[in-house]
Amino acid sequence: MLQVPFDGIWIDMNEPSNFCTGEVCRKRADTPQHKLLRGLRALSAGSSATKPLEASNGYLAQEVAQLYKVTTCQLDCTEAHNGSSSIAYPPYAIAHGVKGQKVHHPRALGHKTIAMSATGVDGELLYNTHNIYGLSQAAATHSALENVLKKRPFILTRSTFPGSGRFAAHWSGDNNATWAGLRQSVHSLLASSMWGMPLAGSDICGFLGNTTEELCARWMSAGAFYTFSRNHNSIFSSAQEPYLWPSVAAAARKALAMKYRLLPHLYIHCRVTSSLAAKLGCGSAVTSAVTTGCTSRAACLGS
What we know:
By secondary structure, this protein is an alpha/beta fold. 38% of the residues lie in helices and 9% in strands. The chain contains eight helices and ten strands. The strands form four sheets. The protein has a four-stranded parallel β-sheet with strand order 1-4-5-6, with helices on one face. Strands 2-3 form a two-stranded antiparallel sheet. A two-stranded parallel sheet has the order 7-8. Helix 6 links the parallel strand 7 (203-204) and strand 8. Helix 5 runs antiparallel to helix 8 (283-292) and helix 6 (213-223) runs antiparallel to helix 8 (283-292). The longest helix has 31 residues, at 246-276.
């Protein structure tokens, strides 16, 4: 068996996400996934040591078009309609899948996830277990890695529930490369700390859309003080590595150098948080970084 060394496991789309909304689905014959896989195999065959396949921009235009299609349903599904199911459409309405709009026609609770009428192996409706799907997956992954690695594992999960902090770190998902996205990341980190996720952060410089030099410099300064720090964005967005701009690289070096000096302090507080359920946040440091470009020496404070 091939042995591949690894440092941890990243669990994504585990709400669980599902691009096929419906109660009953049937398979299509030839889907964009098949076309995408054929195209990627052709690209891989054409790459070499002297002409490597670039992960960020090595896809041909038609492959990028296929990637867009993959995020739409490739099955023929029959959806429940409002009034047809008290599980799919309970007597209350939530803004599910609606971005900043007033809810006139509520969507089914199963929109972009598994239908609420689906059942697990124990016969329990997903309506009753949906919120603990991510927690259960993180717990199972943590247990498996402990058995395999014989040491404390690192797991990063998108979907969480109270108790997830015992098993995994968390990031806030697909955020926007905007000033509002940077501001929201501070709220998200502090909120995660309050419900027991001490190791948390947001995609630095933003995931969706194209960042700017100033925004990315400020975000690298703030993001260095997330307890989980990662610069990450969509394949469809412009590259945003810090070295692309001298000002961003300088801001990142300054902030990350301070972060490394604070690591013993952060580690102790994370350890205390995991064992005593204390809260850990980086409010003073992150706020200072956003407003002053990380000139303050304010540190992360555990309660």
